[in-house]
Batch of 2 targets.
Target 1
Amino acid sequence: MSKVIVIVGAQWGDEGKGKIVDLLAERFEIVARYQGGHNAGHSVQVGDRSFVLHLLPSGIIHEGKSCVLGNGMVIDPKAFFEEADRLAEQGIHVTPERVKVSSRAHLILPYHRALDHTSEERLGNERVGTTLRGIGPAYEDKAGRRGIRVADALDSEVLRSRIEWNLADANRVIEAYGGQALDAAQVFDEIAPLTERLAPFIADTSHFLNRAARDNRSILIEGAQAALLDVDHGTYPFVTSSSTTAGGASAGTGLAPQRITGVLGIVRTYTTRVGEGPFPTEMLGGEAELGQLIRERGREYGASTGRPRRCGWFDAFATRYAAEINGFSSVALTKLDVLDALDEIKVCTGYRLDGKVIETFPAVSAELRRIEPLYETLPGWKTSTVGTTNMSDLPANARSYVEFLSQVVGVEIGLVSTGPERDQTLICRDSALGGWLAD
Ligand code: GDP
Ligand code: IMO
Ligand code: MG
């Protein structure tokens, strides 16, 4: 059976998915994205070269790999070509031979960005803290059956009339909240040349991927955002608008579910969140300084928006929930080295709500805000682990920390990342996903 592995963030994003996808991409023939858009920021460090991928799969860094932007994505054509042009300056060529964009993916148009701003302003203190890239409004149009798909845009008359139709409604909302109405002709003139440029990239990617799987070609499916930002399973309404969890990989690529042979969860040794929303283990008050230390050591600033990420302790209760809904076959644990400076490390192993220990992850955000995390404290190791590649070379306390996390999350840890570079990685086990690391 062909190897089809889904990579999913287990927390609120930025776990280091880009690094792990880049690391594993050389063992796969195709790398595909299945949801989200340029709200993602996946950083890849290769020697002294850094790349940040927003729309394109991180596999693009490896010459000769095919990349797919699946039907579950929302694609801003302007952002696509800006990214392609930026990569070209770095010697990576985004060509139709290598990159296929699903004809069924939806377009993000300028009015989606305007609506994203309007919606956040309307919410005021209750805002989501979105990336303002138009992601939510584009998915709203998709679910509302008025979205414009990549293939629709190939017919310029269809594109023009859909823009006119949708903009009439969008402008009513934008203007009602004091925004500037957009002009349909201007939107068309901006978008039409871009969709024309996109034409050679457009393909039936579901067919391409299923045929590839049938022909025994290996596929790595790269998740963006993360489980706790999933529109169904995340901390709703403080979520993104797509199905980020492994289940979304089938819907968002058209690959039949039984083709998927494993799910790798990307778990960071601590937690961050960018944007608003409940965050039970956030380092606040007396721990704010510690949060700042982690932010600096881990360079925790948004790769898309530059916003400082909120930092907190490892939340094993939330990660166990993520492991359950995604069915992680194995976990890649990232950023162990960031904790090198700490005397003690806390891990949240349970939640107490209104005085009672609870068993399941709360569905209501107001409840998540009232959670009292139950912590266990482990000793730090106060030794550099940067670049360690062998488990036996880790300080004993670092090894115990890794083993403890595996035990409390209930999933084996397949690899540990000890720095942003490809070779700063420690492979622990290679059993759960059928030996995929060894291939
Ligand atoms: P993603 O959105 O999940 O791909 O994660 P981001 O790229 O937004 O953020 C992760 C950041 O941590 C990037 O700057 C990576 O280069 C960096 N990184 C990844 N793994 C490690 C690691 O093990 N140690 C350190 N120090 N940095 C890492
Ligand atoms: P990667 O793939 C972290 C967050 C936003 C906001 C919420 C909704 O790099 O891990 P949206 O613009 O999607 O409507 O915003 O989701 N968010 C992310 N947080 N990493 C990301 O991507 C994110 N993409 C969206 O901050 O809280
Ligand atoms: Mg990111």
Target 2
Amino acid sequence: MIQITGITLRDITLPLKTPFRISSGVTTVRRIMLVAVEDADGAVGWGECVADREPHYSAETIETCRLALRAWVAPRVLGKQFARAADIHTALERDFKGHRMAKAAVEMAVWALEAERAGIALAVLLGGTRDMIDVGISLGIQDSPDALVEQARAARGQGYRRIKLKVAPGRDLDYVRAVREALGNDLTLSVDANAAYRLEDAEHLAGFDEFGLVMIEQPFEAEDLRRHAELQRRLRTPLCLDESITSANRAEDAMALGSARIINIKPGRAGGFTSAKAIHDICAAHDIPVWCGGMLETGIGRAHNVALASLPHFTLPGDLSPSARYWEQDIVTPEWTMTADGRVRVPRDRPGLGVDVNMDRIDDLTVRTEALRAP
Ligand code: OSB
Ligand code: MG
């Protein structure tokens, strides 16, 4: 039995080594809400909320998550007993719509707690089988095609197994063409639009077909499954959905409609590991490849993502860059690293997250703390 006695919300600020620009805006300093869940025996599990300050990626923000965690998540979890972390999902779904990023932060922390208590790796508890995962990099929008070529060249040199280019109207075909021409056809290349286009752009988007991309990620709004299906019928390049995939049912709908041939799974977006595993399973049943996306997480969120990505049907490289790509210093020890041939090792031999949470570092970065306790 897991008896949750406390949930602590800790906001930290952490500057990115280099600003990260996507179609909806630029991030220079990340503000991240970490969640520490404590049980009656004093064991702690860590979670990381993937919501940002502004509702650019989804409707949720750090402040909506804070409200949801305080008002609705915490009361369903605190002082309650759960046989296993998987039961948290049920408790958080009953008559409680949406707020998936808020739910995920606690749900994933409880999975980490259960793994820690059981003395097994989170990856093993989740059903992971792989011990090495292919890593891809997501390159932000640059000021010129030449600048992007330099970034892509450096990424290839570091061994990344797939390079994803963020695109937006006005910064798309010429940028991709420049990278293709400079680095050749062997490079595994994809693009991610973060919903910056509309169906009227279909003909323009068909211009990507000549570059041999492995996928075009989320060209349209999250809700636009039918429009994605219409675009997919007009493109050779596979579409991949990210923002749209908030549940296993949504993934099933997308597959049935033909909205995507590849799916990006982010547990922090989909309400947690139980939901992410269900998306993984339904995609496996439909033979739709999946990969693990990222949200510029710290080493805590990365531990969760690496553990999930070790499940058998994650066959494409994940956005699981090493700590040093994002931060001067991460908040975990050891930091996450990548092999010279672009892979990350799954710490299957260490209990829980597989890395230690660096409390001194977190204390230094903390700008706000809120302790929620059982009544
Ligand atoms: O769409 O995958 C995305 C970062 C912030 C918001 C959305 C996305 C991203 C990334 C970053 O692509 C990937 C990473 O964490 O390295
Ligand atoms: Mg994306």
